[in-house]
Amino acid sequence: MSRLWFRRELLEVLSARLAGWSRTARTRRQLLDLTERELNDLGLTREAAYQEAIRPFWDSKDLWGHRR
Length: 68
Hints:
- With 68 residues, the chain is mainly α.
- The chain has one domain.
- 65% of the residues lie in helices and 0% in strands.
- It is built from three helices and no strands.
- The protein has helices at residues 3-31, 36-42, 46-53.
- α1 (3-31) packs antiparallel against α3 (46-53).
- The chain is rod-shaped and about 55 Å long.
């Protein structure tokens, strides 16, 4: 296993993780902008949406479904 391969793999993993965290943070913020009707369609209360929105971006399931 070459060092170049390892570095490339590491960069890909880090890039995917950062992209996932960014997506999580963005979608959680978007919950705060939903109307009551949209929240109802999702089966969420305003309080549940707020509680989800304030969670830290890193508090999510990883690519394999494990909580971190």
